[in-house]
Amino acid sequence: MLYQFEGYKIIAGCDEAGRGCLAGPVYAAAVILPEDVEIECINDSKQLSAKKRYQLRDIIESKAITYAVASCSNVEIDEINILNASILAMHRAIDKLRQKPDTLLIDGNRFKPYKDIPHHCIVKGDATYGQIAAASILAKTYRDDFMIEIGKEFPQYHWEKNKGYPTAEHAEAILKFGFSKYHRKTFSVPTQINLF
C-alpha cells in the first residue's frame, strides 16, 4: 500500500460507499494520515470482513491527522443522480476536514474540482493508496451503521444484512411491500436484479 504521492505532503484520500444500492444514502469519507504512518492490513473495504473493517476504523481514527464523513440522501440522489451525489458527498467530507490538504486522491475515474485543491482520480485507488483505503473503510462502516439503524424502522427489507444493495431478497421485499421513504425512486428494481 502506498502513502506518498508525487511529492505532496498533506494528502487527503477520498472514497464513497453505497453507489450501487437501491436504498439509503451514499456516504463519503476524506482522510489525511501522517506522512510516516503505515496501517497493517489496510485495504479496499470490499476486500475486508465486517469485523476487520470496524477494527481498522478505530485504528484509522486514532492515527489520522484529520478525517471526516458525509453523505447525500436518497432524495438528493434522485434529484441530481448517483454520480453527482457521490461527488457532492466527497466535497462535503472535504469541507469538514480540520486541515486543508495539498492534494486529493480520489478513488475511481470521475470527480469535480474542489475549490483550488488539485485532485487525482485513481482507478482501484482504494487498493493502492492507504489514504483512499482508509476513506473507503470509514465510508463503508458509517453507512452500514446508518442502514442497520434505519433497518429497525423497516425490518421487512433486511437492511441489516443487505445494507440496501440489490439482493434478490431485497428486490422481493420491494415487490411485496413497495418502496420505503429511504428507497431511491430512480433506481429500477427489475434492471438491477435478474428476477425476470
Tell me about the biggest sheet?
5 strands, mixed
CATH architecture classification: 2-Layer Sandwich
- What percent strand? 15-25%
Helical residues, percent = 25-40%
- Our measurement of the CA-to-CA distance between the termini, rounded to an integer number of angstroms, reads 42 Å
Q: Going by CATH, what is the homologous superfamily?
A: Ribonuclease H-like superfamily/Ribonuclease H
Counted beta strands: 5
Question: How do you describe this structure in short?
Answer:
By secondary structure, the chain is of the alpha/beta class. The chain contains 7 helices and 5 strands.
Written overview of the protein:
The protein is an alpha/beta fold. The chain is 38% helix and 15% strand. It has helices at residues 50-63, 74-80, 82-95, 130-151, 159-162, 168-177, 189-192, and strands spanning 11-17, 26-32, 66-72, 103-107, 119-122. A hairpin with an 8-residue loop joins strand 1 and strand 2. Helix 1 (50-63) crosses helix 4 and helix 2 (74-80) crosses helix 3 (82-95). The N and C termini lie far apart (42 Å).
Compile the SSE list and pairings.
Layout: E1 11-17, E2 26-32, H1 50-63, E3 66-72, H2 74-80, H3 82-95, E4 103-107, E5 119-122, H4 130-151, H5 159-162, H6 168-177, H7 189-192
Helix pairs in contact: 1-4, 2-3
Write out key terms for the chains shown.
7 helices, 38% helix, 196 residues, single chain, Nucleotidyltransferase, domain 5, globular, five-stranded mixed sheet, alpha/beta
